Amino acid sequence: MTTDLPHKRIPIDEARARVIAAVRLLDTEAVALAELAGRTVGVAVVAPHSLPTHANSAMDGYAVRAGSVGPWPISAQILAGDNPAPLVSGSAAAIATGGVLPDGADAVVPIERVDVVADLVTATEPIASGDFVRHVGADVQAGDIVLQPGTRLTPLATSAVAGLGLTSVACIRRPRVVVLTTGDELVPPGTLLQRGQIHESNSVLVGATLAAAGCEIVRIDNVADTAEATRAAFTAALTDADLVVSTGGVSVGPRDHVKPALLELGVSELFWRIATQPGQPVWCGSAPDGTLVAGLPGNPLSCLVGLHLLLIPAVRAMLGDTPEPVTVRAELVSPIAQLPGRLRAIPMLLEADRLEPLGAGASHQLSRAARANALALIPTGAGELPAGTIVDAVPLT
Ligand code: AMP
Ligand code: MG
Predict the structure, then answer these.
(1) 8 Å CB contact between 355 and 348
(2) Disulfide-capable partner of 18 in 82, 164, 250, 270 (CB 3.0 to 4.6 Å)?
(3) Which architecture characterizes domain 328-395 according to CATH?
(4) What's the pLDDT at 336?
(5) What is the structure's pLDDT at 5?
């Protein structure tokens, strides 16, 4: 097959563009406040009223009418939550932070800037109208957009929703993901290994990575290396998911059934093979109903590359967020060889803007990579990047 020739590997940016073009934005659902953190805004969150709703005090002090420095008799005590009467003309009202500014007052003198002698308050500095007053709408005006569609709801954003008095937000439905692992050599962790067996780890990586990206992991199935089992597993997965991710079985060996099964099921190829190292053997396709299918390679660190450079962007696109991978710029602490025609994506430890290789240069070296918190991107080339070179890195979540 000509598509198996190495020169057919497509650059990662091109692969990602094809995936993103094939992605459909998911529909929205109402999500209650308590469930909001980590979800993505589907319909803009609009302020139903201005905040603050009433002019109030920014400090503990005295509400007065600006224009003199006193002395004023103290005519009232205003605490946060009170609904105060108008200020008695020519007086000061003691006021707590957040207390509603009484009608007739237009400034607050902080407690640190007054002298109180015989129940008369005198300001120690001149006062201007508006001093230490939080004005109506100074935070947000009624009708303003507070959160745009595609925004990930952090705890801070979620608290802003609560602060607006809203009890739910129309969020984009979480992408439903089915994960399929292939490989007759795989056994679950906790099982004593027989010669030739390995413990299955990719489903943990794929599941946790995509859950952190905002997906619902519908299920994880382990699939035997037969054409029938592979076809059956993908048939079921395609009906239940927005994104089907398999690992292993995607190459050209006798036990690699993923590609033929998907083609048989009418999934059309977006690309086969990307110009990265590791992570090259990836097959991505789109089912007739728009379900995205990614056949990632079996080697764990190859799998990692496809997840971060292709699938997290795809999920972000499904959620209406900017799909390009988030990268940071950081300095290599030691020289790294480049590869002609292939982007190297190497797990490294990112600390204080410096990238330390962990010796996880080969795609099976999962234990060596375990401490990595970034995927360093070494651009294609024929030389060696010296220590100190600044490169892009994708933080690993
Ligand atoms: P494959 O892509 O199926 O040829 O697998 C490539 C390598 O990755 C083999 O050494 C597999 O044993 C290993 N591998 C495949 N799937 C997994 C998995 N789910 N967990 C850990 N290693 C795997
Ligand atoms: Mg295999």
Answers:
(1) yes
(2) 270
(3) Beta Barrel (2.40)
(4) 97
(5) 52
Determine the 3-state secondary structure of 253 from DSSP.
coil
Q: List 147's β-bridge partners, or say none.
A: 45
User: Closest ligand 1 atom, CA of 225?
Assistant: 3
Domain boundaries in the chain?
A: 12-26+174-318, 36-50+139-172, 56-134, 328-395
HSE of 166, CA atoms in CB hemisphere, 13 A: 22
User: Mean pLDDT of successive 10-residue segments in the chain (397 residues)?
Assistant: 60 98 95 96 98 98 97 97 98 98 98 95 97 98 97 97 98 98 98 98 98 97 97 97 97 93 97 97 97 98 98 96 94 97 97 96 94 98 97 95
Mutate-to-test residue for ligand 1 from 199, 202, 283, highest number of ligand atoms within 8 A of CB: 202
Specify the 3-state DSSP secondary structure of 188: coil
The identity of residue 386, as a single letter, is: P
Which residue lies with its CA nearest to atom 19 of ligand 1?
A: 202
Q: Which residues on neighbouring strands pair with residue 217, listed in sequence order?
A: 177
Residue among 184, 186, 187 to mutate when testing ligand 1 (max atoms within 8 A of CB): 186
Q: Which CATH superfamily is domain 12-26+174-318 in?
A: MoaB/Mog-like domain (3.40.980.10)
Distance 186 CA to ligand 2 centre (A): 9
| The CATH number of domain 36-50+139-172, selected from 3.30.565.10, 3.30.70.20, 3.20.20.10, 3.90.105.10 | 3.90.105.10
Nearest Cα to Cα of residue 298 among 279, 314, 276, 274? 279
pLDDT for the residue 2: 42
